[in-house]
Specification:
With 96 residues, this protein is mostly helical. The protein has one domain. It contains 3 helices and no strands. Helix 1 runs antiparallel to helix 2 and helix 1 packs parallel to helix 3.
Length: 96
Amino acid sequence: MKKITVEFIRLAIIIFAFIIIMTLLFAYINQVESKTLDFLGELLTIPVILITALVPVWMINDLVKKQVADKSIFNLTFFVSLINVFLLGFAMIYLD
């Protein structure tokens, strides 16, 4: 697999996690009563937390090994993963 393909896969994974986090936060803050969103939240919370924690580690590992194909995609992925970490921190601390 080419390095650029790995970069795009990593970006797609982190954007998927971002969309799930934003959807669940939007539903919680606006007090949307939906069994589907409740089930989705219970089902995807742990995988999203793992994705948010492991993708930056994977990225730093590739950065140390100098296997980064495109710095702009790498920076975008890192920025979105940082936003995910802050959103999860916000959700865990203030929306308890």
